Amino acid sequence: MTEYFAAVGFPARVLGRVPLLIRFLSSAGRTPSPYGLARYGPSYRFRPWLRLDAVELENIEELINHGADAHLEAFRASHLAVSGSTAVVGGLLVGGSSAMLALESLVEMHWSPRALFILSLLLSLLSVYFTLLQQRELVAMDIRTFRLWLWDGTTIPDQNDSSKRIRRSSLSSNIMLQAPFELLAISIALFLGAIGFYLGLAYASKVTLSKGWDSNLATLLGFVVTAVFSLSVFGQALGEKDRELTRCKAMMAEGEGFHILRTNPQDTEANSGYTETKDWTKPNER
């Protein structure tokens, strides 16, 4: 049942990613996640709504099966910290949407900007509300209960050792963890779209927003250029970082060409007293 809701909500989640579309376009040609194929089978290739959660589900699965209690506590603390920021941004967006709805010029143009502002306001409120529910749910759990909460109650064969079975991560839990941010992302996309519609319709309908020759056109162009440039720069940087991270993981998985030279042989990976050196020669050439 959870997957059906994920499929229905897929278009809305895609909408929330539109402001950073360039990031996702840069990774559109990637092969499907091996974890997703192992979990859902060959049909995973044709169920795009599952791709949005594959990375998080894999990380949670690793955590509940092999992570120590301290790792689980850190994972919960990070989500609580992010949810606090989500609530703050959601509150700011509620104020922004409310201010835009108070503009008298909205009554002189098509209803679409007002509808988008209302949807943005509603989703911002829901984002804050779901954040409060999430915090109340997570804070009340001890670590053992939290580990069980991330599990969906079924076991699957371990990909590294088929003779063993491991806990499978819960899609429902991940959706609950991601829901406040997803709603906020959709709300931001709608808010930006509403401003664009508002300025565009004001120009097309010749509604006077400010004094000056072609002030509506200048305002519209300024908004479009600034928004597109800013989102493109950040989205491209995120996409490039995704590709770099994928390349680094592949190189580390090969296990060739990397040596850690510690300044103190007693240092551990948790300490900072070491430097990394790279030897790109093949093992048989060393």
From TrEMBL:
Compositional bias (Basic and acidic residues) spans?
276-286
The question of whether Transmembrane is a record keyword is answered with yes
Region ranges (Disordered): 262-286
Superkingdom of the organism of origin: Eukaryota
Keywords attached to this entry: Membrane, Transmembrane, Transmembrane helix
KW Membrane (keyword) present: yes
Composition bias type Polar residues, residue spans: 263-275
Q: Which residues cross the membrane?
A: 80-103, 115-133, 183-205, 217-239
Could you tell me what this protein is called? Uncharacterized protein
